[in-house]
């Protein structure tokens, strides 16, 4: 087929369109984020309906159409089902954050293999009933914030530039990193971080997945890490993530 290609894609967003179609936002491995129209998939018996579900990963044959959107010509599921995502409200709310954040920060048609792998692995982890979805989401968000170019300063105080001693500090989203105790009052919105949370932030910043999986993260540590991420996203994105608010409401 002229003007068509095959690629692995993950459905980040979907809306119904017309009588029986769907418009999808798909993150592909080799072509970046693309808009796709899936024709006829809401008709009974459509062979591709399941592949247009949220967070589905499949091998897609995509053809250039007349407009901006690519046309989904064929789709074959390429990985096992993230089963927990469909049945567990909390896990699917976390997956929605992954999808919304990815959709929000990526520009179209710019392939980024590392982001594709990060999203795919995060969704797999979120769908795995043996693994903690909060942990998976914190790792994902930390990696995405760094990739956006907002990696926080974690070694020196962002106000006075002195190297941080091994003592509690405070995370300032507006300042772009940690504040030493002397400068803490410079940002009333800063979040107090015990030493162990600072260490966790440094492991995540180093992209050290092996050490990350061995870290013990209790409820308080995760809550602090989530509060930091929430503050950073508020600061760096022009509007709040709707899916994050849904997740927080679910947790309350
Ligand atoms: Zn300072």
Using the CA coordinates, give the radius of gyration: 20 Å
Helix content: 25-40%
Q: What ligands are attached or bound here?
A: zinc ion
Task: Give the integer mean of the pLDDT values.
Answer: 93
Class computed from helices, strands and strand pairing:
alpha+beta
CATH class of the largest domain: Mainly Alpha
Q: What is the overall shape?
A: elongated
Summarize the main sheet.
5 strands, mixed, barrel
| Proper CATH architecture of the largest domain | Up-down Bundle
Beta-strand proportion: 15-25%
**What is the count of β-strands?**
8
In short:
The protein has 252 residues and is α+β, with helices and mostly antiparallel strands. The chain has eight helices and eight strands, in the order βββββααααβββαααα.
Question: If you had to describe this structure to a student in words, what would you say it looks like?
Answer:
- The protein folds into two domains: 4-77, Beta Barrel (OB fold (Dihydrolipoamide Acetyltransferase, E2P)); 132-251, Recombination protein O, C-terminal domain (de novo design (two linked rop proteins), Up-down Bundle), CATH 1.20.1440.
- Helix content is 39%, strand content 22%.
- The protein is built from eight helices and eight strands; from the N terminus they run βββββααααβββαααα.
- A hairpin with a 3-residue loop joins strand 1 and strand 2.
- Helix 2 packs antiparallel against helix 8 and helix 4 (133-150) packs parallel to helix 7 (219-236).
- The mean pLDDT is 93.
- The chain binds zinc ion (ZN).
- Zinc ion binds next to loops.
- The site of zinc ion has 8 residues, from loops.
